[in-house]
Write a structure and sequence with these properties.
heterodimer; A: alpha/beta; 14 strands; B: alpha/beta; six-stranded mixed beta sheet; about 20% helix
């Protein structure tokens, strides 16, 4: 079982800042921290060390990656190990970027970094073992890095972050637990009642803070936006009834009301019978026109925006919102009447 | 001895039949079959005293009920495309391949009923299919009446150590209208006087049946109540780790913000009647109902009742943040029953029952990757199965 180890010029013993421009090079066997790592790796052998100057990597990333990946292709290791780079920004970034590129090419890869090192984000689908912020954490980091690297060399893929000792990569995987969800719930509740609160999934939402009050509605352009699946009769643009992949905009053409002869809802998540009797129940154009005539709102934006909010992943809905808001902003809209279902 | 024979006009037969016919297929364990358009799964049950196995007038959870082990009735119906007030979603059971791990029927003999819709509309077809499936399940259990049971379990909540915490289950039953109902004693959940306290045994004994056809993985098919893992766990732990305080059925998909708040408070009041120190809140369906669960969680915690919430993740294939549809800070103890959007590897069944084409038109035998969402009960939010999700 083969490993290749990546280090910067300093840890590879080539020199300090004065050697930071050193281009990528390949050294046979382990060097520097690689020796300590090798002692922990058991059956996994470090066949080569790749080294690169921090400045060289930062300034000529493309060229550096090309050379380093070419070395990797020659060695075809079972695992690429990078670092530990601790809190070092340039070195950490190189470790993260190289391991990410290796992982994309199907080579298992792990870096060892402080959790706040920018290299963690750069590592993408590669694994990152957390370390202390500086080199004082070397002795603690090496066995943990070796453990993850050896498991990765052997299995190609790891179990959950918490069990295997790497940083969560920002996504989740399904698994079959030993206990049913019901049994797990009883365990969690009893633990909580005993004072030890645990959870299988953290909450946290993008809380939308209420914006500042519109000082004078009679002076602003107001837009109608809906997720009620309201479209012209016949659904000419084929808005899906569920799991919409985008949103649509339609001109109001000065219309006073959304007549059932011209509009309908294709939403598949609620009973649309009453809505389709009078589409103003979804998008209250009739009432908005009244407010416009009375001067209580400045003017109505002559385009309304629509999508189907049904089974929509939150990330997708967030994108719709951003895109629609950007258009409204460009059009000078000062307030939105957003109808939900 | 006189006998009378009365004859009637054939006009009486003119009523449109909502179901034109049904195909019955018995699938033995291990057969590489995919079943599509699945409405419900029901365990065969019958009562020796002649009372109905799925009663509509109360009385479940008393006396004795016979269950036929290792057999499940799966009902299938491909609704006519027109006139769908609510859209039923795809619902698959795989009895082989990787999907079989998500739908736990591969080790059982499956009695697959494929209903062919007739005239009279989708709601009438659904009602007929649903009632027929329950009756078939009852008939299948009839041979147990003349046989010796392999095992008899007794469900009762005896005296327990008063130092143990009192734990109740708050079980959400959704009701969003036609095709999206769960039923309590045959009445749609929205009209069943929820929230209400029921004896835990009622839940296991046919008091709640299913008629909901939203996202398959988040459904509660009837068998998930009959074999309810949560109620069974709480019975098993009663007197050992906890005192099982009881079950509250509450409605999901309350339609207004005001109703959502009102119902959350009413559920707390029921939990307080049961003297609960802690509650497990389960979820039915997605989106809207997750908000009901979060509000109920908050109301319980504010009343000093500790909560654990059971729900599924439904964001994207890798469950990136934000993971949950709704969340309150009080929900600090959550069981995840898995991510609906993760894809299950491809499998080619040798045979397809229920309908050859999926709702999106693809051939069911060559459907490629299928999201967990489309597997019946796969991420059941009463915690019926073992699926979970964790950070990677």
């Amino acid at each position: 079982v083969k490993a290749v180890h990546y280090l910067n010029q300093f840890f590879a013993g080539m020199g300090g800042e004065d050697k930071a421009e050193t281009p990528p090079t390949r050294i046979e066997g382990p060097v520097g921290p690689g020796r300590g790592l090798a002692a922990e790796l058991g059956a996994v052998e470090i066949v080569a060390t790749l080294a690169c100057g921090d400045d060289y990597f930062a300034e000529q990333e493309e060229e550096a990656l090309r050379t380093l990946l070419a070395y990797l292709e020659e060695d075809r290791p079972d695992v690429l190990i990078a670092g530990p780079a601790f809190g070092s920004g340039r070195y950490g970034y190189a470790c993260g970027t190289l391991t990410a590129a290796a992982a994309e090419r199907g080579i298992s890869a792990v870096a060892a970094l402080h959790p706040e090192n920018p290299g963690v984000d750069a590592a993408g689908k590669a694994y990152v073992v957390p370390t202390a912020v500086n080199v004082a954490g070397m002795r603690d980091a090496l066995p943990r890095l070796a453990k993850v690297a050896a498991a990765l060399a052997e299995r190609g893929e790891l179990g959950p972050a918490e069990e295997e000792g790497y940083l969560p990569r920002g996504f989740r995987r399904n698994y079959f637990a030993e206990k049913t969800g019901a049994e797990r719930a009883v365990d969690l509740l009893l633990a909580k009642l005993a004072g030890e609160t645990k959870t299988e999934v953290g909450g946290g939402l993008d809380r939308v803070e209420p914006p500042a009050r519109v000082p004078d509605l009679s002076a602003v352009l107001v837009a109608l936006v809906t997720e009620a699946g309201c479209v012209p009769q016949g659904n000419p643009d084929r808005l899906p009834s569920v799991r919409a992949q985008g949103w649509l905009r339609y001109d109001l053409d000065g219309e006073e009301t959304l007549s059932s002869a011209r509009y309908e809802s294709v939403h598949g998540g609620f009973d649309v019978t009453l809505a389709n009797e009078d589409p103003n129940r979804l998008v209250p154009l009739d009432a908005a026109r009244q407010l416009e005539r009375e001067g209580r709102i400045g003017r109505l934006h002559e385009t309304f925006y629509t999508t189907t909010g049904n089974g929509t992943p939150v990330v997708m809905a967030t994108r719709f919102g951003r895109e629609i808001a950007a258009e409204l902003e460009r059009a000078g809209v000062g307030a939105v009447l957003l109808s939900g279902t | 001895m006189a006998w009378e024979l009365a004859t009637f006009s054939p006009d009486l037969f003119r009523e449109p039949a909502p179901i034109e016919g049904v195909d019955i297929t018995v699938v033995r364990p291990g057969e590489p079959v995919r079943i599509t358009h699945v409405l419900d799964a029901v365990e065969p049950r019958i009562r020796p005293d002649g009372r109905p196995a799925f009663p509509t007038e109360g009385g479940a959870g008393e006396g004795r009920t016979n269950r036929l082990d290792g057999v499940v009735v799966l009902s299938c119906l491909d609704f006519a495309a027109e006139e769908r007030p609510l859209h039923e979603q795809e619902s698959i059971v795989d009895l082989g391949g990787p999907g079989a791990a998500y739908t736990p029927f591969a080790r059982e003999t499956c009695i697959v009923l494929t209903f062919r819709p007739g005239e009279g509309g989708n709601e009438a077809a659904e009602a007929t299919a649903r009632r027929t499936s329950l009756r078939v399940a009852e008939e299948l259990a009839r041979p147990t009446l003349d046989a010796e049971p392999a095992q008899v379990e007794t469900f009762e909540l005896g005296a327990a150590d008063e130092n143990l915490p009192r734990v109740a289950a708050l079980i959400q039953l959704s009701d969003l209208g036609p095709l999206y109902h769960l039923y309590v004693y045959g009445t749609p959940a929205g009209q069943a006087g929820l929230p209400r306290i029921v004896d835990p045994a009622e839940l296991l004994d046919g008091a709640v049946t299913s008629g909901e056809y939203h996202w398959a993985a988040m459904r509660n098919p009837t068998i998930c109540f009959q074999r309810n893992a949560l109620v069974r766990s709480l019975y098993a732990d009663h007197g050992k780790r906890l005192r099982f305080a009881g079950v509250v059925l509450m409605r999901g998909y309350e339609q207004s913000a005001e109703d959502k708040q009102r119902v959350a408070k009413a559920a707390v009041a029921r939990a307080q009647e049961l003297g609960a120190d802690g509650v497990i809140i389960t979820t039915d369906a997605g989106g809207n109902s997750h908000t009901d669960v979060m509000l109920t969680c908050r109301a319980c915690e504010r009343a000093g009742i500790r909560t654990t919430v059971v729900l599924a993740e439904e964001t994207d294939p890798e469950s990136t943040r934000p993971i949950l549809t709704d969340w309150v800070p009080e929900a600090d103890s959550i069981v995840s029953t898995g991510n609906l959007e993760e894809l299950v590897p491809e499998w080619r069944p040798e045979r397809v029952l229920g309908g050859d084409k999926l709702l999106d038109g693809t051939a069911a035998a060559e459907a490629g990757l299928i999201p967990v969402r489309n597997y019946l009960g796969a991420a059941n939010q009463m915690g019926q199965l073992t699926l979970g999700a964790r950070s990677a």
